[in-house]
Structure formats: structure tokens, C-alpha cells
Recover the amino acids of this structure.
């Protein structure tokens, strides 16, 4: 039974899809699927179920998974239990950008209709997984400082090749040039719009999840390649920038964690602590400041 040598735990919306595409063909990844979600939602299926996703591993190169387990303490505990020597890659992005991107993803897949302020109160996990310093400390304590790598999305956007080179060194493979022009730009799987037909997107989402549950990954991948998912989930109203009131409140909540992360990784993250938005985006409402204050 072969299990990963490394796991890129995210969190989500921090270039995890980019990393999966960049590593494909150079390491052994889960068969025909990016995220197994084993250490979170599918843990009850058993470790053999998880290992089955790596049944075609060559045995000559590292096995890995790119899955946003970051921010879920039970996932860190389970990884440490089953793969004590696993190497961990954490990818961090400007926290407000990550939170807004997560909200757009939920809207894009018709998982919520709520305005952003109400959504963040109802789904506090979106903010919780963005407390980078808090959860990074947990991974470091479980796996050791040398086995936990921190990557910043800022570095990816500045120089994708150098960003990838560092990861290759960490997981123990030879460096190689980025092959895909899309990957070379450093941005993959961006969410910019709502579905043109909400009813169609809801049905497509149910089908997509059903196919994954049945492990019909080939069918789902075919539909993605054919553009079916893109047609069902996009083409509607485009998102604008985040509401400035929401941005200010999120910065107030997350600034202490950003400052703690600066000390942990020895990087200046001043740009993450400054508001940048001047106008409101597609939010659907004003900030529920009192409610968000309770999330600190």
C-alpha cells in the first residue's frame, strides 16, 4: 500500500490547481482526480480507499497529493497518524483576496446566494482556514520545521519558474521548465463570474458531485475538457472588487495573524495589511460589522 510522500495542503484558492497542473507528469498524483478529500470528508472510507488512488504509482518518483486540508486540525492529525514522514507544502495568499475568492467560488457553484457579509457569518470556516500562523504552527509541531514548506502566492505571480524550482527541491525531484503557457502565467482556475443559468448550474453541480462519489473521474474530466462545466457555471454577471467595508473589517480581524506569520517565516507582509479597494463589488449587501466582530 503506497501513500503520498508529500501533500500540498493549501488552503484552497492559493494556487493549488496551478501546482497540481505544474507537477502532473513529474510526480505520481491521485489517479484522474485532483482532490480525494480523504483526510476530511472521506476519512470514513478507510486508508485502503485512499491508497487505491495511487495504485498506478510508478515506484520511481515521489507520490503526492494537492488537496486543501489546511485549516482543518483533524486532517493534520490524520495525516500525521498515517504518514508520519510526509512532507507538507503550505501555500499562502493575501488573506482578504483568498477569502473573497472563496466566496466567489461558492457563488459560482451556486452553493450560496447570501451577500458576502452574511455568508462569512454563516460559514466562518472560510475565515478560519485563512488564519495562516495558527494552523502553520500546528503542522510544524506535528511534522517538524524541515518537513513543512511555506510558499507565497506573491512569489508565484512574480516568478512562476523560481516558485516551482523551490518546490521541486523540497520534494526531491529534478527541476524542469514550466511547459504550459497557461501555467507559466501563474494563474489557473480563476473565478470571475456567476452562472448564466442558476438552475442549470445547480443540476450540473449535483451531477459533478455524484460522479466524484461514484469515482467516475474519467467522465467528469471529459466533461471538463469538453467545456461543459465551464458553460454551466459561467457566463453570467461578473464579480467586481470586494466591498471596502468588508475588506477593512477582515483586515482588522486577520492583522494579528498576519503579523504572527511574518515572524514565523521571516517575510515582510506589509502589503497584506493594507486596504486597496475603493469601490464596491458584487456583494448583494452591506457589511454586518457587529456579526463579523464576533468571529475574532
Amino acid at each position: 500500500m503506497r501513500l503520498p510522500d508529500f501533500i500540498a495542503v493549501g488552503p484552497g484558492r492559493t494556487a493549488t490547481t496551478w501546482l497540481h497542473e505544474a507537477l502532473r507528469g513529474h510526480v505520481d498524483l491521485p489517479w484522474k482526480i485532483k482532490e480525494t478529500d480523504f483526510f476530511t470528508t472521506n476519512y470514513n472510507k478507510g486508508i485502503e480507499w485512499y491508497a487505491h488512488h495511487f495504485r498506478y504509482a510508478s515506484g520511481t518518483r515521489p507520490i503526492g497529493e494537492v488537496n486543501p486540508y489546511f485549516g482543518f486540525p483533524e486532517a493534520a492529525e490524520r495525516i500525521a497518524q498515517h504518514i508520519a514522514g510526509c512532507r507538507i507544502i503550505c501555500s499562502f495568499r493575501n488573506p482578504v483576496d483568498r477569502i473573497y475568492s472563496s466566496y466567489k467560488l461558492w457563488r459560482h457553484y451556486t452553493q450560496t446566494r447570501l451577500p458576502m457579509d452574511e455568508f462569512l457569518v454563516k460559514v466562518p470556516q472560510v475565515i478560519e482556514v485563512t488564519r495562516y500562523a495558527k494552523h502553520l504552527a500546528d503542522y510544524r509541531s506535528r511534522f517538524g520545521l524541515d518537513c513543512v514548506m511555506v510558499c507565497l502566492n506573491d512569489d508565484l505571480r512574480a516568478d512562476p519558474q523560481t516558485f516551482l524550482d523551490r518546490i521541486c527541491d523540497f520534494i526531491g525531484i529534478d527541476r524542469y521548465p514550466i511547459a504550459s503557457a497557461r501555467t507559466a502565467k501563474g494563474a489557473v482556475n480563476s473565478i470571475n463570474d456567476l452562472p448564466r443559468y442558476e438552475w442549470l448550474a445547480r443540476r450540473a453541480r449535483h451531477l459533478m458531485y455524484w460522479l466524484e462519489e461514484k469515482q467516475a473521474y474519467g467522465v467528469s474530466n471529459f466533461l471538463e475538457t469538453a467545456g461543459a462545466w465551464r458553460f454551466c457555471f459561467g457566463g453570467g454577471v461578473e464579480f467586481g472588487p470586494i466591498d471596502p467595508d468588508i475588506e477593512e473589517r477582515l483586515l482588522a480581524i486577520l492583522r494579528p495573524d498576519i503579523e504572527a506569520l511574518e515572524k514565523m517565516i521571516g517575510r515582510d507582509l506589509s502589503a497584506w495589511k493594507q486596504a486597496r479597494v475603493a469601490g464596491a463589488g458584487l456583494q448583494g449587501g452591506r457589511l454586518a460589522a457587529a456579526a463579523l466582530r464576533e468571529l475574532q
